[in-house]
Design brief:
Elements (H helix, E strand, L loop, with lengths): L2 H11 L3 H12 L4 H7 L1 H4 L4 H30 L5 H9 L3 H8 L9 H7 L3 H9 L5 H6 L11 H18 L1 H14 L1 E6 L15 E5 L5 H12 L3 E6 L2 H12 L5 H50 L9 E5 L6 E6 L5 E7 L5 H17 L4 E5 L4 H9 L8 E5 L4 H5 L2 H6 L5 H14 L1 H5 L18 H19 L1 E2 L5 H4 L7 H14 L16 H7 L3 E2 L17 H10 L4 H6 L1 H5 L13 H12 L29 E10 L2 E5 L6 E4 L20 E10 L4 E5 L8
Parallel strand pairs: 4-7, 7-8, 9-10, 13-15
Antiparallel strand pairs: 1-2, 1-3, 4-5, 5-6, 11-12, 11-14, 12-13, 14-15
Length: about 725
């Protein structure tokens, strides 16, 4: 463990070194973020998942910096360039940019203009000029004329000397730091449309002639400009005020007004235009892309978390419909555990005869399978199918719910779906997915690549490795927050449980299939490859609802069972009595049970959990329906007030489904009567809202919405 890393992270995150060290040690030992945050509070000072993740990620970043540092030192040593001073500078570098600046003069280079000038023997002349003494550069240059070396005149010699000086300036640590600061503080993004691409690139029209500061450009615009450039519609530059950049460099390197200084001034201008500005632009492009990626990934992760933790319908008999016009609607019936028990097809949007047959089928299936809820996908023909179902006169106890089907088609064609339903076609799998994601969004959505769920912003443009790690963190966090019923969970859900992973999850399912339901958490130790470490990490997040031990249904970790037993014994009651009687729990003096490894944070968690063992932290499900008669964009007119569901949140606003197959946009300026910087502070994904229609653009299929109070309402 690198103590300097611990000190640095503690300072950056404003945490104690003791708690950072404990967290880092747990991570190094293989503990997961959810496990550390939930079951190791005494060691970490009750750090939450955000803080633990920040420590983990910063440790990785500093580790990468150390690897690069070692590689640079090795390269310098092998080439005989490593001095004590240089080693000290390399070891002291705290960022990758500074480290690379230190290494730049020593980095193996391709042949540059400066390299060629050195080969011609012009470095002594460059040093004479760079010193900017009282010499006459023209006169001095004459001594370096050498036709055999390609120096045909004094001007050739001066030009070569300036090339060497330009490279020195480009590699100067202070100059690079100052120009980098200028790019970040006063640089601007500047985009122009590529000539002849105006029509094809119309979606980038806002950027055909665009300029905005690097320091304030929001993530979504940076990513939009980069995508436009990548697709060949825009040219993109990052430039600071050139006169200011040149003046800054002159102040660093030009010492007077003599002839030598005039040569240095020329070299300074050349260095900036030919070397330094290009190098810095490349660096700032990478830096701003990283910044934009981080923000886009943050928004995506928060949206995904809200979607995964959407209220579940729970265990009900569900009839799910994947709608369609010409191809008909696929119908499936699922039992309370989500098991497929029937499939069918209806054609309600064709002839009157087909519509009557569809009506009879739906009514009959509802009676036969005691259907409690009908789930309808919100894609093509969704609203029309919903209207059809609502007119059937079904019992009031049967609720009809529109379900966001984003990603259902991806799932239906996936290996996971084929493994679950090898004998069913993609339409059946898609309909099952629609029904199950209503019953339990988390359990079903973990089977789909998060990028296909439709809650991201430029997700295909950001760093895919960073995105995957962040989204995996979110899925794992949500799965472990809710907890997993080990006897009914899919392999895909189990693999996100702390400490498990794909192989052990598969082994659990195979063991369950062979031996029947698990009767206790302890029985999990019999699963192949589920050793003591994996058990420690996973056990508290796995639930056994009908297990032999009452605590197996709770989030109390098996390592703490003896504490609950001790509390119950001290109260002279059973564990069941202790769980059910708030009065008994209130009498407990928790300080009595404090030990070296168990403190009050864990003891308080245990008592809270005993009050509501295994409680689902997600909100209660509430049925929702769109406005009748508003089924397509042509039905929408300005001034309407409509119910809707937030489907996606971006840096520039929130998208809301109002039931017309085209989400409307609530721009950030229309989210609230007060100023809003972060849309996620006002609305959440899957939140039910009432919006006012501001504008409808039928040609571009755009709907502008508002959540603000309108003039008539004030």
């Amino acid at each position: 463990m690198n103590t300097k890393h611990i000190e640095k992270i503690a300072e950056e995150l404003r945490l104690t070194e003791k708690h950072v060290l404990a967290t880092a040690t747990l991570i190094e030992e293989g503990a997961t973020v959810p496990f550390i945050a939930r079951y190791r509070k005494e060691a970490t000072g009750s750090l939450d998942e955000v803080a633990v993740t920040a420590i983990r990620d910063r440790l990785d970043q500093l580790g990468e910096l150390d690897k690069r540092r070692e590689a640079i030192l090795k390269s310098l040593e092998e080439r005989g360039q490593l001095t004590d001073e240089l080693r000290e500078n390399v070891l002291a570098a705290e960022t990758m940019a500074v480290l690379e600046d230190i290494y730049l003069p020593y980095r193996p280079k391709r042949r540059t203009r400066a390299t060629i000038a050195r080969e011609k023997g012009l470095e002594p002349l460059a040093r004479l000029i760079f010193d900017q003494g009282t010499i006459d550069p023209v006169a001095q240059a004459g001594a370096f004329v050498n036709a055999e070396k390609g120096v045909d005149s004094g001007e050739d010699a001066l030009a070569g000397a300036r090339d060497i000086i330009a490279e020195w300036i480009n590699e100067d640590l202070n100059a690079r730091a100052r120009i980098r600061e200028l790019f970040l503080a006063k640089g601007v993004f500047r985009t122009k449309v590529i000539s002849g691409k105006e029509e094809d690139g119309l979606k980038y029209k806002d950027y055909f002639e665009w300029e905005e500061p690097v320091s304030t450009a929001p993530s979504h615009r940076i990513l939009a400009m980069r995508r436009g450039e990548k697709e060949g519609f825009l040219s993109l530059r990052i430039v600071p005020p050139e006169e200011e950049a040149l003046a800054l460099l002159e102040s660093l390197f030009v010492k007077g007004d003599g002839e030598s200084s005039r040569q240095v001034r020329m070299a300074t201008h050349d260095s900036y235009k030919r070397l330094l500005s290009i190098s810095m632009e490349t660096e700032i492009r990478l830096e701003t892309r990283k910044r934009a990626d981080e923000e886009a990934i943050r928004v995506f992760a928060e949206n995904l978390r809200q979607l995964l933790l959407a209220p579940p319908l729970g265990q009900k008999n569900v009839l799910a419909i994947d709608p369609g016009f010409r191809t008909g609607c696929k119908v499936v019936c699922l039992d309370k555990q989500g098991k497929l028990i029937h499939t069918d097809m209806i054609y309600p949007h064709q002839s009157e005869k087909n519509s009557s047959e569809a009506e009879a089928k739906i009514v009959g299936l509802c009676e036969k399978f005691q259907i409690e809820t009908i789930a309808i996908g919100n894609g093509t023909a969704g609203r029309e199918t919903e209207a059809f179902v609502r007119k059937l006169g079904l019992p009031e106890k049967i609720s009809v719910v529109m379900v966001n089907e984003s990603g259902a088609s991806i799932y239906s064609a996936s290996d996971v779906a084929r493994e679950e339903f090898p004998d069913q076609d993609v339409t059946v799998r898609g309909a099952v997915s629609i029904g199950r994601r209503l019953m339990d969004p988390l359990a079903e959505l973990v089977k789909i690549d998060p990028k296909s769920i439709g809650v991201g912003q430029y997700q295909h443009d950001v760093d895919q490795g960073v995105l995957k790690r962040c989204l995996d963190d979110v899925v794992m966090s949500c799965v472990n927050l809710v907890g997993v019923e080990v006897n009914t969970a899919s392999r895909q859900l189990l693999m996100y449980v702390s400490g498990l992973g794909p192989q052990i999850a598969k082994n659990i399912v195979e063991y369950r299939d062979e031996h029947g339901p698990f009767r206790s958490r302890a029985e999990l130790k019999k699963v192949s490859k589920l050793g003591p470490k994996a058990f420690e990490q996973a056990a508290g997040f796995l639930r056994i609802r009908d297990g032999e031990n009452l605590l197996d249904r709770s989030a109390v970790h098996p390592e703490s069972y003896h504490l609950v037993d001790a509390m119950a014994n001290d109260m002279r009651c059973s564990v069941l009595d202790f769980m059910q009687d708030e009065r008994l729990r209130g009498k407990i003096d928790l300080a009595k049970y404090v030990m070296d490894s168990v403190g009050l944070p864990t003891l308080n968690d245990i008592v809270k959990e005993l009050a509501k063992p295994g409680r689902d932290p997600r909100e209660k499900f509430e049925a929702f329906s769109f406005t009748k008669g508003i089924e397509k964009i042509e039905d929408v007119t300005p001034g309407m007030k409509l119910p809707g569901v937030v489907t996606n949140i971006t840096a520039f606003g929130a998208f809301v489904d109002i039931g017309v197959h085209q989400d409307g946009l609530v721009h950030v300026s229309q989210l609230s009567d007060r100023f809003v910087k972060n849309p996620g502070d006002v609305v959440k994904v899957h939140q039910k809202v009432t919006v006012t229609v501001l504008e409808v653009d039928l040609k571009r299929k755009r709907i502008s919405l508002s959540l603000k109070k309108q003039p008539k309402e004030t």
